[in-house]
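2 proteins. here.
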Amino acid sequence: MSKKTPQRMCVGCREMKEKQQLLRVVKSPEGEVSVDTTGKKSGRGAYLCRDSNCLKRANKSGALSRTFKTSVSESILETLSESIANISH
């Protein structure tokens, strides 16, 4: 019997994908939004495809801000963009 792989929805393209294929962004209990490279940080998580188009789409639609119920700063968006760029190369 094979083990099921966890599925998560990308907040940019709204597609269900395997959790390992996605980048996790987390809002800590203190309210700090950051990229979660380990996937184990505590707090509210949102997932994004490792694709700059999904990040742009999520930012344009306000999906990250809505998910975290707070505004996501430009510095976080830049960090996400850099993380995606580093992963895809």
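next one coming up
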Amino acid sequence: MEQESLRIWFDPEGDVLEVGFPKPRKGYFKSAGDDVFVRVDEKGNICGFALLNVTKRTGKIRETELPIRARFSGKRKKPA
């Protein structure tokens, strides 16, 4: 399975956390409820997400490095 790094970005002024792939992909955000938005590409595959009002959810945020792995799943391809 091919692995791709993630881009994690926090905007303190807008209080928004966004996680996605570093290479730009055409797509759009759709609401998943409660200030959570899922980024979907043109084919309907999930390629990231955004959280609004992050500091209200987590309290104090500090800068840190996270050794994380993530796997996004979305629309499944039908077997040929």
